[in-house]
């Protein structure tokens, strides 16, 4: 099994306030942020993990959260220098940072750029103030517009805007309006997610009334049409971009590449010795920092059973509009092409999945039913 490309994910677990829909590992900041202590933990974590990825190059770095923009540009610069001391980075390495409009000083944008961030992802979610309040966001539409303008003025060309649809009391017209306002800022990339109610969130305990499935489907179709009209092509279920501005980091996830995760609650997927393993870190920031400092048992590890690899590969790869190469599937799963074809035969016969020019992809109809498709690929349970 050939070694796949490798990315680095860095998790920043604090937010000013926990949003009611969020099931990520994020914690409301209740005291002054201790940047030096967390940075020391991140670097120690990275050093502990280096044997897993030694002599590999990084395709991308992604600073996610939580809210990485709570950390100063000096702190981000220090972290990226530490990463650069351990990996050979090039000027082409994509380095993304997530930022929330309500949790940063907009004059920091140019300093983040100088620190080495070359792709900025702004969590706008909506330009409708009523929806922003329902979602528990700490910014309003005016602050969102200011943040986008400031990012542009600072020199960020590779800019992503995160939006959500299917919001409480949202109409199709409102969803399209959000889309239009985002495109006014000419971002290179737009991530447009459907709001889903996840366990362990406040919305799960006290669910808002969401638009029905038919209305949400109308929103999805209308949004896709508007984005297509303005030159944004859909390359993944929730991802749209112009020209060649796909998110390198996320494409590596979807193509079943390897990624090393550092930080509280971060996950990794690493291929070694023809085996795929997953790792995840202690979720609570204080526990994570304490255990990293003592080189304690701050992570858990499990091997992915070989029989699960095709499902895991397709779980990601079929999200891509153009699918994945059969050769790549062979490389990442260790399965011969003949066996892959055999295990996909039912889906190929159904017409929901195509195998054309040695690429595996959903048909237009199948792309609407990815969850159902993946159900058919679930590994057989142990007897």
Structure description:
The chain is built from 15 helices and 17 strands. It is an alpha/beta fold. It has two domains: 6-252, Alpha-Beta Barrel (TIM Barrel), CATH 3.20.20; 307-377, Winged helix-like DNA-binding domain superfamily/Winged helix DNA-binding domain (Arc Repressor Mutant, subunit A, Orthogonal Bundle). A nine-stranded mixed beta sheet has the order 9-10-8-7-6-5-4-1-11, sandwiched between helices. A three-stranded antiparallel beta sheet has the order 12-13-14, with no helix packed on it. A three-stranded antiparallel beta sheet has the order 15-17-16. Strand 5, helix 3 and strand 6 (119-125) form a beta-alpha-beta unit. Helix 1 (35-53) packs across helix 10 (285-293), helix 2 (73-86) runs parallel beside helix 3 (109-115) and helix 6 runs parallel beside helix 8 (213-229). The longest helix has 19 residues, at 35-53. The protein is globular. The mean pLDDT is 93.
Which tags fit this structure?
383 residues, alpha/beta, TIM Barrel, Arc Repressor Mutant, subunit A, 3-stranded antiparallel beta sheet, 15 helices, 17 strands, 22% strand
């Amino acid at each position: 099994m050939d070694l796949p490309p490798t990315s680095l994910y860095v998790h920043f677990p604090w937010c000013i306030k926990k949003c009611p829909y969020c099931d990520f590992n994020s914690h409301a900041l209740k005291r002054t942020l201790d940047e030096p202590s967390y940075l020391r933990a991140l670097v120690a974590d990275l050093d502990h993990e280096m044997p897993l990825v030694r002599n590999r190059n990084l395709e991308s770095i992604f600073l996610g959260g939580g809210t990485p923009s709570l950390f100063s540009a000096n702190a981000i610069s220090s972290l990226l220098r530490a990463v650069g001391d351990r990996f050979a980075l090039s000027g082409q390495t994509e380095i993304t940072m997530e930022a929330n409009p309500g949790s940063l000083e907009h004059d920091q944008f140019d300093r983040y750029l100088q620190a080495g961030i070359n792709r900025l992802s702004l969590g706008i979610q909506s330009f409708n103030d009523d929806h922003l309040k329902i979602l528990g966001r700490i910014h309003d539409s005016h602050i969102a517009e200011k943040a986008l303008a400031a990012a542009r003025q600072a020199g960020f060309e590779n800019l992503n805007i995160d939006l959500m649809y299917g919001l409480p009391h949202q109409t199709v017209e409102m969803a399209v309006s959000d889309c239009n306002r985002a495109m006014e800022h000419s971002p290179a990339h737009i991530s447009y997610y459907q709001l889903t109610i996840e366990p362990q969130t406040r919305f799960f305990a006290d669910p808002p009334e969401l638009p029905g499935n038919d209305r949400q489907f109308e929103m999805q179709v209308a949004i896709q049409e508007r984005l297509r009209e303005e030159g944004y092509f859909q390359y993944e279920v929730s991802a749209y971009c112009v020209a060649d501005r796909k998110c390198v980091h996320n494409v590596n996830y979807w193509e079943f590449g390897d990624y090393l995760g550092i930080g509280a609650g971060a996950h990794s997927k690493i291929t070694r010795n023809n085996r795929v393993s997953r790792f995840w870190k202690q979720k609570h920031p204080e526990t994570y920092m304490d255990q990293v400092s003592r080189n304690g048992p701050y992570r858990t590890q499990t091997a992915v059973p070989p029989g699960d690899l095709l499902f895991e590969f397709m779980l990601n790869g079929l999200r891509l509009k153009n699918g994945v190469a059969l050769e790549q599937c062979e490389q990442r799963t260790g399965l011969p092409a003949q066996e892959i074809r055999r295990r996909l035969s039912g889906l190929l016969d159904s017409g929901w999945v195509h195998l054309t020019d040695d690429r595996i992809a959903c048909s237009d109809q199948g792309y609407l039913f990815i969850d159902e498709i993946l159900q058919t690929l679930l590994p057989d349970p142990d007897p």
